[in-house]
Amino acid sequence: EDPSLERHFKGHRDAVTSVDFSRAKKQLVSGSMDSSLMIWSMKPQMRAYRFVGHKDAVMCVHFSPSGHLVASGSRDKTVRLWIPSIKGESTVFKAHTATVRSVHFSSDGQSLVTASDDKTVKVWTVHRQKFLFSLSQHINWVRCARFSPDGRLIVSSSDDKTIKLWDKTSRECIHSFCEHGGFVNHVDFHPSGNCIAAGGTDSTVKLWDVRMNRLLQHYQGNSVVNSLSFHPSGNYLVTASSDSTLKILDLLEGRLLYTLHGHQGPATCVAFSRDGDFFVSGGSDEQVMVWKTNFDTDYGDVVKPQKYGSSVDGTHGTGSEMDCGIHHKKTQTQDSDRTHEQQEEETSLANTLEHILGQLDVLTQTVSILEQRLTLTEDKLKECLENQQKIIQNKTN
């Protein structure tokens, strides 16, 4: 069955720049050139929340792994962390000296990586938003930065036409990929962490093996690629292009599967849900669209190496091998070794831990908000005292 448009959301007053699903698919977030974020509920008839705080266009948004925080970056040079509830409270910090193009939480939710037009990539702690370090070898705007699934690597893409792979511990650039013929708008890690995919203004999508630093696949399209997202199985990739289309690539067979039309004007952003059942797209037409994936649920046991030929619609897979070395599905033999009770206990424990982590996120954020309010109050008190002192001095003079 083909992917189908499930619903679309209208509420933004300018182009949508970034979209993301919460972990449980209950909410999705969108950022816009209208300087606002919107939190949309996947439940029918539930109202949306508009978050206002940024003083300029919101360029990027991302849900924390627990779904209890949303990070946003803006042309106002700041990053905000929001609690996605009706109050819409946030903490703010000046992250860069120019537009913030990208925000991304690490998989443990403890760190945040940001990328900016000031040509740097920066890493922060989520708790108290403490600056950790900066990566600064790009020589032009940095469009995108992402943590690897295990958090040990960072990948960044830039208008200097390079993609850089960084070691988070040593803070060194361990490789630069220079094969793109234009600005590189978006880059992300394969779910296995062994590959990266990038798209840009040269209308191509390229996939590299980050262990061997070699090109695995190359897709030539007809229009600028603005955004891309891996399906959690690792077998598919969805892209958003300036020709208003979304394209789904089959990475196992190295070919284009679907070209989807929905947006009027450039499709600017796209993201799969955490389980891959849905994906969400945004466009310059101010619309947010939710699509049902409708893929066969049996994604295959292993990503097998195989040779690729040409595909349809002006897209070509190069004759290279794709082997990210992942097992997507447990075999029945493995499953039968574990009892039903053990599985239930593990699920219950995982849910409890996730809930605790989520509550810690909210508590941390609440403390940060209170700290900011106290600082503001202290500043106002100091200002009042200074004014009083000036009045007294004037009277005595």
Automatic annotation (TrEMBL):
Can you cite an annotated GO cellular component? Answer: ciliary basal body
The coiled-coil segments of this chain are none
Q: Which residues cross the membrane?
A: none
* Keyword Transmembrane helix part of the UniProt annotation: no
What ranges cover the WD repeats? 9-50, 51-82, 93-134, 135-176, 177-218, 225-259, 260-292
Q: Which UniProt keywords apply?
A: Coiled coil, Repeat, WD repeat
Gene Ontology biological process terms, A to Z: cilium assembly; microtubule-based process; multicellular organismal-level homeostasis
Question: Could you tell me which Gene3D superfamilies the record lists for this protein?
Answer: YVTN repeat-like/Quinoprotein amine dehydrogenase
Reply yes or no: does the keyword Transcription regulation apply. Answer: no
State one Pfam family annotation.
WD40
Family, per entry: Belongs to the WD repeat POC1 family.
Q: What is this protein for, i.e. what is its function?
A: May play an important role in centriole assembly and/or stability and ciliogenesis.
Q: What is this protein called?
A: POC1 centriolar protein homolog A
**Organism of origin:** Donacobius atricapilla
Q: What is the lineage of its organism?
A: Eukaryota, Metazoa, Chordata, Craniata, Vertebrata
Q: Which gene encodes it?
A: Poc1a
